[in-house]
Amino acid sequence: MPSNFVLWVRKLAPFPQVSIEEIEIPHHGGIFDYQAASLIIDLPLFEPTRVSLDYLNRKKLEISEDLTLSMFFENIVRDVIPLTPLVAPSIDEFSTSFRPEIPTEDRFIKLPFPRIKGHSYADDELHEGGQIALPFDANGIDRTICRHGNPRNACPQCDAEDDHRRERERTKLLEGRSLDIFQLLRPILMPPFEQILEGQEFFTPIFRPKPYQVAGIKFLMSHENALLGDEMGLGKTIQAIIAIRILMRKGKVNNVLIVCPVSLLGNWKKELSDWAPELNVIRVRGTQNQRAVLWQTRSMVHLASYESLREDIENGNITRTGFSAIILDEIQRIKNPEARISQAVRGLDSTYRWGLSGTPLENRVEDVVAIFKFIKPDLHFPYPDNPASVKELIKSYVLRRRIQDVEVDLPEKQVNEFWLDLNEEQQAAYDNEYARAKEEIRIRGAGNRIYIFSLINRLKLICNEEETSGSSCKKDFVIDRLESLLPEEKAIIFSHFPKRTLEKLKKTLANYNPELYSGELNQRQRDSVIDRFINNENSRVLLISLRAGGVGLNLQVANHVFHFDHWWNPATTRQAEGRAYRIGQSRTVFIYDIFTNGTIEEKIYNILAKKQELFQMVIDDLTTETVSGNLTDEELYSLFDLKPPRPIAHFEEIDSPEKIKEKIRLLSASEFESLIGKVFEKKGYSVQVRGAPHDGGVDITATGSTRMGIERLSIQCKHYYNGTVGPEVVREAIGTHRLENTNRFFLVTSGVFSQEANRAAQIGNIDLMDISTVIGEIINLNLDI
Amino acid sequence: MSELIGYYSLEQTNDKKGYLGAILVIDKKGIPQEFRVTHSIKPTVIQKQLYGESLVEYIGVTLCGLPLYNSLKVKPKALMVNQKILLGIGDEINCFVAFAKNPGEAYVLGENHNEETGKITSDNGLFKPFFVSYPQNYDQQKELDSKEYLQGFATSVDILEPFKRIKTALDALAEQENQFR
Predict the structure, then answer these.
(1) Would you call B179 and A100 a contact, using CB atoms and an 8 Å cutoff?
(2) Identity of the residue in A98, A101, A105 whose CB atom sits nearest the CB atom of B181
(3) If you write DSSP's letter for every residue of A284-316 in order, what string do you get?
(4) How confident is the model over B159-173, as a mean pLDDT?
């Protein structure tokens, strides 16, 4: 035993705050309490051999960390810390003030020795003068009795309970995986960036960025607010990871939040471990309670999905909202400024705010404005409806490269369309269903757009497979092609019907040990599906639901991609095949675009060919509503060789403005709002009636595409039948408009506007619609009330 | 075992009322192997009066430097210090101790080193030459041995740069933890 040693201990209750004490025990010395010196110094001195763990135990003291903390070693706690005295015995009297500040966080790990149970300083150790009355005799042996009736230091029950509790605490600590702050410092202590770029230690030969990626990394590092919009496959993820890694080493960033679609969590985790192995990453997942613990756990990187982040912010699971850096992957997820996720992420605070997206966003003014509300909240868009000015404004924050712009050593990609004839059974079923659908549309008349989409899906399913017989020309084609694959080649098959197409295909293609990746799988299952497909050479086919796996996955192991059916937006198809055709792909990639002749697929193909530009600009998500808002009635009905019906009967009824006016008079306020919503819907906008509890002045929001880009409207309804709306209402609306992120603001009334109100509206740049305008719109649009 | 070099830095806290000691051990590639730091030590007014000019040296050498060095799991063969007054630690520990001046900083001949042992050049020309001081009790031979060892590092490591890392780390610590302020 060394003659001198120092223990750092934490004193427990009843002191008002947790205190750290240094106890120096030289063989000739005493005990120095740096927090409340008098308490311990006044105690009778002990012989060094008597100052044992038992004594500390009785004193309710715990040994904790020593003065210095190790950064790279797992076990930072030692029973006895063999340090030389911190304070020389000869200068005791003032050494008491050389004390460390009080660490407030609980990172003191209990030693494996029994503690006194059922014992309180307040009860028997402190008397009125604040002096300690020792609960042990002059020999230092505690003879008091524990609650089990045994001497406190010799009670097996107490020992067992203590062991159990300590084990629990230890498990909890390990589960928390909480990092010591010194581990967090490791990136800062690594060699500087200049040495890093030399690449001696930073990058392994396998994981080394390409020159254009280095440019992207530098761009991110030099921009606190940035949108990296490289085309899919160029490695946005790794550029962001390396940039973060370097910023951590430079000490500019110490905690990062990465948010991505749930399907990409596994991919991010893998990329982080490949490209930044020293970073500690916590994937926030599980139940709400589990996630709450994970959010509180200290880590260099927190990785979360958009959905869980939104939920946790809304539920208050995330107590801290500040990060040094936030990366939003597939940032187009927040393009709707009113979506809850958009609002949630805007509440987060961070120095570095980066967005990643392979989707061309620069043409979508509205989306860009919404996204930059997160990336650079203080960026002011004076003319949001002017694409040129918006582009100019964001230019310095956006880096977008296309594959052909950079020197990427990618192999060839062969895209081929295959137009197949339906099998006999399929054709019969298709004809039957088509005729039935056509008839149903005729019977139902106008206003059934969503229903029409469901009919389209039914027909598309028959194009994929005739259910009764299982006959499918596409399936035959795929089997035929798969048979010609080389033994080492793998294939991916995309469809947006996971249940009714992919699950059946899985059975059919059993010889190829297919894996199915769909939205029904949880994250762990998804990861293992991808893992099996990549690493199991017998697994030759991966069936992917377009919705679940169309973005973000890295599947260079496959070089044959089948699009079994197609989503409305061709860009979605291209993005999906980008899973295989990306950096790391060494073989020619064969794309099989499968269509069926003379079917709804061909008709959609033709419409999309005409509208391709609009679709590529406007649609990139997989919602029917978005598609619905951008197909005219004529186009939709033409899929069934029909013309959109005109509601003649209604037309006659509403032909008279007086009748319409009378009908409007009878409407309730909410019905009036619905009517106005219908007016704008009929005008081609995608409409959302907010409802009174959430309106905040705005009753309806509407979104539509114009030649200038996306237009967003806020609409406020005032059902003042025969009433006059005054200027104060208009001014209030102007105020509301300023708070809304919309291009135009409409104030609509079932009454009229006063002259002052009209003047105020002109000045405040809002649009007014009085009863006569509303009636005129209803007549023009043949709208039923 | 790979060759190691330690960097011991005594820094003032941001409020200038206290001191923090930190020691970083790196290998020949500059990769950190171990890092230890003290909590802040804040001398009282009385202590300042009593210790006078020797206060910083006392804190730097006795209170922080030696415990830090002794607590290292693997002891480096050389220890660079960021202040000349910390050279006193060399009297107590069994490794080469040196204080390096920044390139371009005034070099005063006649200090406790000479031209032969004080100037260290990077053999591959990667880094600028720099001058070092050794503890007063070093004889010529020990200075030469120290120089040889440091010269070995000067080809792959910017000898003064790790002090910047320590400073950055201490700043980060101070931001997050009270006891380092």
Answers:
(1) yes
(2) A101
(3) --SSHHHHHHHHHS--SEEEEEHHHHHHHHHTT
(4) 87
